[in-house]
Amino acid sequence: MNQTIADKHRTFRRFLILVFSIGLLAFAAMGGFLYLINQMRKQVPEELANIMLPETRPVPAFALMAHDGTPFTLDRLKDTWSLLFFGYTHCPDVCPTALAAMGELLAEMKKNQVTAPYQGVFVSVDPQRDTQDLLKDYVAFFSPRITGVTGDEPVIKDLAKSVGAYYAREAGRGDDSYLIDHTSHFFLIDPKGRLTAVFAANRFPPAEAADKVRRIIRHVESNL
After folding, report:
1. pLDDT of residue 28
2. Is 113 helix (H, G, I), strand (E, B) or coil?
3. Which of 30, 97, 147, 214 has its CA 20 to 30 A from that of 140?
4. What are phi and psi of 216, to 5 degrees?
């Protein structure tokens, strides 16, 4: 009888120890999670928290073509800061406005003597109509620092998806008169080929947008 009671006490103590251990592990895990979140928040300056990602996202490998006929791959996004925009030359309003803003943003960065290398990239979501020659003339109107990019549609779609850009061809139009609904955001890629910030093309005046990009560059480079 006494032995049975003693066994029950031991079993109960083991149960309490198990419950206590699980509680400690859960508390530690939650603490670690909260610590990680706080650290991620600390990594992003408050004035950039609305556009800069708390954690960078690597851009996967891809193979497209630049408007000058040279290959445009992930390597072209490395060792330089890149501002990507997904659109098409037949776009009636959003793309011309966004590329004008990109051109002014890049000019402001030059004016502010940003020493880090940087470039603008216009990725066509309409490879059916956007030839290399058409892209060359189109981007040249906005800035010599912008490269037009085209290629196979599945590759373009995968690249867009990897950074969170959306586009879809409008139904019910002829082969040459269709429109394309698409994201109107800039995607900032760091020199390691990682998505670092996202913001609407018309969200800030060019000078303010350039200042934010400059601050991001300074923040990232100071933490390397």
Report:
1. 44
2. coil
3. 214
4. -65, -45
Say if residue 20's pLDDT is above 60.
Answer: no
Name the pTM for this structure: 0.79
From the number of C-beta atoms within 10 Å of its C-beta (0-12, 13-18, 19+), residue 132 rates as middle
Q: Are 186 and 83 in contact (CB under 8 A)?
A: yes
Residues near 156 by beta carbon (within 8 Å), at least 6 away in sequence: 64, 123, 124, 125, 127, 150
Cβ atoms of residues 223 and 190 within 8 Å: no
Residue 60 zone, left/alpha/beta (φ > 0; ψ -120 to 50; rest): beta
pLDDT in tens, 83-130: 999 999 999 999 999 999 999 999 999 998 888 999 999 999 999 999
Burial 33-60 (b: 16+ CB within 10 A, else e): eeeeeeeeeebbeeebeebbbeebeebe
What distance in Å separates the CA atoms of residue 55 and residue 185, rounded to the nearest whole number? 18
From CA 86, how far away is CA 156, in angstroms rounded?
Answer: 9
